[in-house]
Amino acid sequence: MIQYISTRGGQAPVNFDEAVLRGFAGDGGLFVPQTIPKISRDRLKALSGLAYTDLAFEILSLFIDPGIISKKELARLIDKSFAGFEHPDILPLKPLGTDPSVLIMELFHGPTLSFKDIAMGFLINTMEYLLEKRGEHLTLVLATTGDTGPAAAHAAAGKKTIDCWPLYPKGMITREQERQMTTLEAANVHPVGVENCPDGGDDIDLVVARLFADPALKQRLNLSSVNSINWCRVMVQSIHYFYGYFQACDAIGDPIVFSVPSGACGNLFAGHLARAMGLPITGFICANNANKTLHTAFSTGVFKKEDLQQTLSSAIDIVVPYNFWRFLYFTTGCDPKKISTWMDQFQKTGEIRLDPASAAAIGNQVASVSISDAQTLDTIKSTFTKKDPYLLDPHGAVAVAAAAALKNTYSPDTRIICLATAHPAKFPQIMTKALGTDLPDQAFHPSLIRSSTLCQHLRTCECDHLESALVHAMDQVAQKKRDPWLIIHT
Ligand SMILES: Cc1ncc(COP(=O)(O)O)c(C=O)c1O
User: Fold this and answer.
1) Residue 395 Cβ < 6 Å to ligand 1
2) What percentage of the chain exceeds 70 in pLDDT?
3) Which of 126, 285, 374, 389 would be a feasible disulfide site paired with 259, CB 3.0-4.6 Å?
């Protein structure tokens, strides 16, 4: 039976349901499987012809004990979670212009038009299933840089066993992203725009971490997280690396690299997980914008928190990529003592300097580059004005620019799959900056046009008061649930 332990080692192994419902490990670490399941070459061949949802079933079966979620239930949860995707292939792979060595994998065909939908639907449907079985209710609190919040809000909307609190840095996400959360008519979804957070989503992450560190509050509200802290998110995201590889290769073993626009490192770690399971991915490109904590770590072995820079690829404006700890855990020998020491030091000083062996271990796994806003705009413009125009969102553009920067370091027969993680329609101002005001049809999406015609439920709070204000509001909602007729005077 596969069990889950903490990267810090301070917690007894738990089953899949506990890891998913708790989100954070109790000792401040992140849940990881005790061992990574392996897939043989022959098995990979057999999997390579499967449709996405069938492949998802096979991969997820390796991580989820059938005693906790039966095979039949797992198949039902997968079908339900991907039914709302608008493309028949779910995650289509497309050529980018005429260069056969660079491909685009579109990860944004879910209900809120970003790759967050891929894992969020399954995670929240799974939570609902487990909560119903236990007769429990969960309060989800999450910080968002613009895409996780809408994905969680949509997946949670209307679920009786869940209240969902997406917290976003007000003014630092696009109006379209804000509307995706605030125009939902769902009494169990409570988005909060947080004012005055200089470090954006990272400031909110700190508040969320403090809430989780309060055992009484955690128990009273049954708090959990659906950020990529939650193991289920990275587990589900590993599937698209298998799917992309199978679509792009002629035979298992062909040289294939993934270029991944990276913020909290969840998606990149999911790729690493797929490779650790046996998928022969040649390499990864960690594509950062000007917030280059990961690039610095992979290229120098120094993991250091820098000041946040606001960029055009705002969803990856992140200075503390928390999934890096999972990456470090698996690449430096699965030693929880090492991770604990590094995490404590990072918390105290905002910096760790890896020993040469550990620095080499991570540097060998991932190439990296930091892409400027000017390069992002140039990439959007040049890929759209080429012979076969393709409109990239700013995050996909960061991945494509990074692939162009590092392409010559790979053998000529290598194919690079660039992950397009959001639909360009979520970023109209940036599209206008790159292409001018006469935007093409690809820069629009009917769901966003519709949300611009609806009322918004706006709730805001100063970052300095977020912790106490949130506890107050969450307690009130919980009280109201117990007594719907209650009028609360504050
Ligand atoms: C559009 C988009 N691209 C890329 C990322 C980065 O993913 P991760 O945080 O898993 O590195 C995010 C989320 O933060 C995102 O919303």
Assistant:
1) yes
2) 99
3) 285
